[in-house]
Amino acid sequence: MGDWTARGAGRTDEPVADGPAREDDDLRAGLAGLARLASADLGLETLLTRVAGFAVKAIPGAEGAGLTLLEGGRTAMVVVTAPFVREVDDVQYGIGEGPCITAAAEARTVVAGSLGSDLRWRRFGREVVRLGVHSVVSLPLVTPGGVLGAMNVYAHSEGVFDQRAAELGELFAAPAAVAVQNAHVLAQARRLVAQLQAALDGRVAVERAVGIVMSRGGVSEGRALERLRALSQHEGTDLVTVALSVVDEAVRTARTPRHG
Question: What domains can you pick out in the chain, each with its CATH number?
Answer without folding.
Answer: 3-188 (3.30.450.40), 191-255 (1.10.10.10)
